[in-house]
Amino acid sequence: MAINENWEIYDNELSVSDNQTIESILTVGNGYFGMRGAYEDDAISEKSTTHGAYINGFYETAPITYGEQAHGYPSERQSMISLPDASHISLQLDGIPVDHNHGEITDNIRDLSMKTGLMTHKFVWTGKLSGKKIQVSFRRIVSHVRKHIFAIQMTVKPVNFKRGILSIKSTIDSDNLSAHSSDDPRVSEINTDEIMKHARQINTQNDQIIGLSFTTQRSDLSAMVGAIHNLDGKVSNNQKIWQSQILIDQQPVRMEKFACYFDTRESHGESVSETVVAELEKSKEAGFDALRKEQANYMRLFWHDSDIHIATNYHDDLQMASRFALFQLLQSVGKDGKRGISAKGLSSTGYDGHYFWDTEIYIIPFFTMTQPQIAKSLLTNRYNQLSHATEHAMDLGYRGALFPWRTINGEESSAYFPASTAAVHINADIMFALQQYYYFTDDEHFMRQYGLKMLVEASRFYLSYGSWDKEKGFVINTVTGPDEYTALVNNNSYTNLMVKNQLEFLTTSFDLSQVARFGVTEKEWQQFEMAAKQMFIPREDNLIGQDDSFLSKPKLDLKTMDKSKFPLLMHYHPLFLYQHQVLKQADLILAMALMPYRFTNEQQKINYEYYEPLTTHDSSLSRCAYAIAASRLPDQDAFDQMLQSSFKTDLTDSQNNTANGIHTASMGGIWLVILLGLAHVQATENKLILDPIMPPSWNAYVVCIQYHGSQIKLSVSERGSHVTLMHGLPIKVQLNGEIVQF
Amino acid sequence: MAINENWEIYDNELSVSDNQTIESILTVGNGYFGMRGAYEDDAISEKSTTHGAYINGFYETAPITYGEQAHGYPSERQSMISLPDASHISLQLDGIPVDHNHGEITDNIRDLSMKTGLMTHKFVWTGKLSGKKIQVSFRRIVSHVRKHIFAIQMTVKPVNFKRGILSIKSTIDSDNLSAHSSDDPRVSEINTDEIMKHARQINTQNDQIIGLSFTTQRSDLSAMVGAIHNLDGKVSNNQKIWQSQILIDQQPVRMEKFACYFDTRESHGESVSETVVAELEKSKEAGFDALRKEQANYMRLFWHDSDIHIATNYHDDLQMASRFALFQLLQSVGKDGKRGISAKGLSSTGYDGHYFWDTEIYIIPFFTMTQPQIAKSLLTNRYNQLSHATEHAMDLGYRGALFPWRTINGEESSAYFPASTAAVHINADIMFALQQYYYFTDDEHFMRQYGLKMLVEASRFYLSYGSWDKEKGFVINTVTGPDEYTALVNNNSYTNLMVKNQLEFLTTSFDLSQVARFGVTEKEWQQFEMAAKQMFIPREDNLIGQDDSFLSKPKLDLKTMDKSKFPLLMHYHPLFLYQHQVLKQADLILAMALMPYRFTNEQQKINYEYYEPLTTHDSSLSRCAYAIAASRLPDQDAFDQMLQSSFKTDLTDSQNNTANGIHTASMGGIWLVILLGLAHVQATENKLILDPIMPPSWNAYVVCIQYHGSQIKLSVSERGSHVTLMHGLPIKVQLNGEIVQF
């Protein structure tokens, strides 16, 4: 992959060629809504395509059908749905369709500029009969500045002729919507056709506006999609089509289309259609170029705070992959405290558009360290769903709050509890992110107003879910850890370590007086302390068991297994996987990656060497954790290899499913690898600890970190590591063991 | 419940009054097919009714929809379906319907004679306008002698008038069929309407025959139901209705109806409709009274071999309950080696008409000890399904054969593997029944031809499912034991003890030379021996853990729990139940009941006292096991109480769901309680061991047992126990520790 200055992704330079994979990669979005990188007119190519436009958290529900039902199972699932697509524009030249049936398409290239947040699509069309050649370009943005606005600027330039009639047909397409991508067996069919059948026209004075409003049938959510053009045209087909004709007279012609995606939960009493029309008119007034500049400016600030510079001895993949990761995280993440970040971002309805623990463990760290206000908004979204978590715990028979394994609206949406609800580490994961947020930002206000209540309720849950064993101490039985190839075990060490961490956070960073208002008594407080102190971790000397019985199971020899049997979950019954020492993904090693200070060097080495050969990395969440853990081991070759592979997911389609959406957790994992695996960053309440290392065959890297409102830049090269204060008050940094004020 | 000589069940004397419960209780069947005890004409009562006619093992399939799918899950479920009902007969007197709308119904009583296998229904009807009174009686049998024949004899007697016209309408009703009873959440909807829509008339020369033939849509099974009457009449409505008129002239009038249920898998090349017609004509020729006598004779022989006499100080419930149990087992059990015995017998489609482990552990013992040819036919049915079991094991990733948890055709039909496929004790349960069958019958031929192959394949499965632990020995991880309130644990002690028993049976009752033809090598044989010897059983001194971690979980205090929370599975999430020390049903205690010789007296006492307070008995399989175990304990009051409660299931509707079918396992449990709990019978290869006890407040009991082809009678009274040889060669009996030849 050759990359223009490492800021641009050209589809013809990607190592993948499947059009739907490329469409996922070229998604543009702003965290509120997103658009896949499909062509404006499908007919310019014969490749198969999946259009998609999604509002983060805009979902329909469907009843869950169980093979066998039991008490307390979720009754319905939520699914983010595909919305009417405003990117469609098709052309005719002198009445002939500008497509691959009626002409030759050449120089057809899409390009995503990560620097400016602009996607460009260009091609040249030569009419079969007329021989007339035009160069067409589309530039599109989903504005980061204007939450609801998507804009396209089209330019058509005559190449070998002087005059012609260009007919433009611009639509909002609500055909062929689907609720999910086909490779995910865990999702239900949602009938979006039914929703669209009842869509209504937008009621507006402006007869140039096309669009429609619609309401989901079961979840009762409404949204409106409208569009306006900077030329006059004819609106038809129930306001879904806009058409216009322009005379090409030697000069290029240009058209701009502005679309507005507006979920009615965004309105505060005012008329939705008036708001949409006003937004559209404002954008049209400003013009595409103004929006593009706003966008470039926004991105400049983003990169200023967030960019990672990497210089390596090998190819430039890593620089590119890390920028792509951060860029897509920004595009995917909800920033208003009312939505999260889904497993596939806003690039598809894969995994139903659900928020998982990926958010807190894999993704929030990037925002915590670079854009803490976004980390805050993600934690606020969890806080806003706390009442559902409290009900969920009660439904199951426990006290406190248990956050849902997968959800949009805060209710558990999972249909197989052994690999979801039983993964009760979700609470500790969220609290880990809260702790990190607090330590990095010192945001006392947030803790007082939101954080502590979550922390207390999440801790209460564990006191009632866990129990006291006279020999072992505090045990947490019947859980599933991160590794989905093991389920319903006792004392998953990741879970227990994370819960221990959570309870220590509560009881050492705060005191009883701060949480008494949540009904915490002295007795309960002591239990929190005691459970943290006596938390049981299964061990055999320095080898830590993934759970109480893991080490006594037979091992699968992954090296000798038939390659066609991977990923194992597609070829083996869960019982077989549960019965063996085999991991889908990092489990104990993830705890080690997140909290290396809880393990001795000897333990890190022994456990890494034990678990790595048992891990299939069938999950995209796995390699980054192993890379981080490997960074502290003597074997630098293994580290280098794991490091490189952890950067590869979407741009190389290494999981073979990027067509069904990007992998946001894996993208967050790239940040983790650099910060936890290379910079070896750790925030405590009063200082920032950095123990940076230089990986084999790297020359240098530079990364910015915010701590307590200040920003520092860490530069690491062969000559050593260097910290500079970029803005804010001086902060205390422990660099390579030495405490320095910067 | 007052009972006529303890042989008759009158519906007006039952302690239950719900009509559908009574219909279940009054089911008549012959193991091939069965009919619920519904009225011939629903309109004589306003109570709600559920008609039902079922052929054992005649099923339709439906796809299973999973909340989340995974590799190796069964894709479809089988469901025994309700068939057209030939019991319908309605009357008119002088053109007025003989029902509760047009007259007064009095003395309406149904009666099931267990002695003769005859069900009678009588009532008196007095016309509202005419004041004419008739006494109507129906007698029905499902013939044990004629596998396919159901017969009804109707008598109508004028009480207060001389002359009248009686119109008879007799139908085969295929309306309102359903595939399942409503209280079972685990079954799918099967559209039997669709099946009946395509039903065809029977092609026959005899124009008096009504009936239809039909084919299931997915499983592609065909059956024919036909009927004939001993009077001439008019056939209409596509051969589904037969009508006739008779002059009542002072004397009673009589009509007989013969129906034939014929599954085409029963035919061997000959024309099905010709067979059905021939069967019908033969029965009609013989006449109802001849069929009734055949039936009474069959039942006489059955009771001769099987009856239990019980004399107690209290009410006669136990005598009645035990006879009812044995009677219904006979009616429910497949006897031709091609079908098993379903959880609800032939009284409903509850549990989809599936065969479970109940068959081998709860039911076969009765047949093994009294009608070994039936035990053999049940084991033969398993043998016939061995190839499915081999495939099933392979699909899961293991060697050998794993029998299905629930099935009709031999394929796993369960949709929630943690409580089904993971219950791998199913193999050992079947092998336990095989061992018992072999020890009681000495049927070497069966072992050679069928038994050994099953035993080897079932044992191979365990060698690959289990594994060797350097400290514990042979362990069997990730299993579910009998107790459904615990799942996916390691070393369930019931499972491990039963597998140990199976492997010991194989390696001590046989030698390598007998199984070498199944590819067993010396090495494998040694592994069988070693696994048996080194089988791990979790223990804390004399207390045996239900599994590796059971004893360390918190206990549920069942005594203080709200009564409205039972059965717990209806009110708690599985996670909550799995997390606690709480049992739905006997688990370790069942192993103790089946193999008391593997436990010391001290162990029996300690474990009973530990587990009983933790057991909800939410399953009808539970109390009989506890009663048997209690029989060996010093506390005779507890024993007496458990003993009595173990007899109560269907006649008192103690589970509140007999309306949805009888509980065959619980019925088998009554036999187990008497034989294993009181007679303390144990068969070894060369002797029969009896250590009979007399329970508190019992005066005497008498029971017959077959052993090695001979039959003995054991009489136990306050004066001691007495054995008599009833027929066959003398056998060696160890009675109360003393070996005697009888």
From TrEMBL, chains A, B:
Gene3D superfamilies in UniProt: 1.50.10.10, Glycoside hydrolase, family 65, N-terminal domain, Maltose phosphorylase, domain 3
Residues of the Glycoside hydrolase family 65 N-terminal domain: 13-265
An example Gene Ontology biological process: carbohydrate metabolic process
Domain of life assignment: Bacteria
Signal peptide: none
Family named by the database record: Belongs to the glycosyl hydrolase 65 family.
Gene Ontology molecular-function annotations: carbohydrate binding; glycosyltransferase activity; hydrolase activity, hydrolyzing O-glycosyl compounds
Record-annotated Glycoside hydrolase family 65 central catalytic domain positions: 323-671
Keywords for the protein's UniProt record, in alphabetical order: Glycosyltransferase, Hydrolase, Transferase
Keyword presence, Magnesium: no
Pfam families: Glyco_hydro_65C, Glyco_hydro_65m, Glyco_hydro_65N
Stated name of the protein: Glycoside hydrolase
